[in-house]
Amino acid sequence: MNTAPTWLRASQQLLQSATDLATLAARAYLAQVFFLSGLTKIRDWDTTLLLFNDEYRVPLLPPELAAVMGTGGELVLPVLLLLGLGGRFAALGLSVVNVVAAISLPDIAPAALQQHITWGVLLAALALHGVGHWSLDHLVFGPILARRLGLGSTR
């Protein structure tokens, strides 16, 4: 017997839908930011290599390798994040890209630093909370995990 009033169940469902929408919106926003950055880098690869050699100070990596890894991460991980496929992995990977980008610019402007902080907070929330019900992780792997764990429905 379910003792929760109907209005309470309805409000919980409404809040869950709002949470799923907000999570999807955060994923779409972050995916756009990082993917467009990656596209900018591949449009003019010579300039990208020049920047990684002369401007960006990526620790521990040769500039050419840092350019390839950073650009690859900015092109692949946003797609995974948007789809919600390996969503936590994608959020963590983009967090690394974000932190490295922020610390690699010796004279980062305060407004640019604030953007990196905002992206970092959103990525941390997605990595910790997950990418939501409106994701391939939930739609594909949720039922598989539920069957294997004997939990029935994942909703």
Task: Provide a descriptive summary of the structure in words.
The chain is mainly α and 155 residues long. The protein is 78% helix and 0% strand. It has helices at residues 6-43, 45-54, 63-83, 87-104, 110-129, 136-149. Helix 4 runs antiparallel to helix 5 (110-129). The chain is elongated, with a radius of gyration of 19 Å. It starts with 5 loop residues before the first helix and ends in a 6-residue tail after the last helix. The mean pLDDT is 92.
Helix/strand layout:
Layout: H1 6-43, H2 45-54, H3 63-83, H4 87-104, H5 110-129, H6 136-149
Helix pairs in contact: 1-3, 1-5, 2-3, 3-4, 4-5
Helix tally? 6
Tell me what portion of residues adopts beta-strand conformation: under 5%
How far apart lie the N and C ends? Answer: 18 Å
Instruction: Report the radius of gyration as a whole number of Å.
Output: 19 Å
Instruction: Please state the overall shape, judged from the principal axes of the Cα atoms.
Output: elongated
Largest sheet geometry: none
Order of helices and strands: HHHHHH
- Summed over residues and divided by their number, the pLDDT gives a mean of 92
Number of strands: 0
Q: List unreliable stretches of 5+ residues.
A: none
The SS-based structural class is mainly alpha
User: Helix coverage percent of residues?
Assistant: over 70%
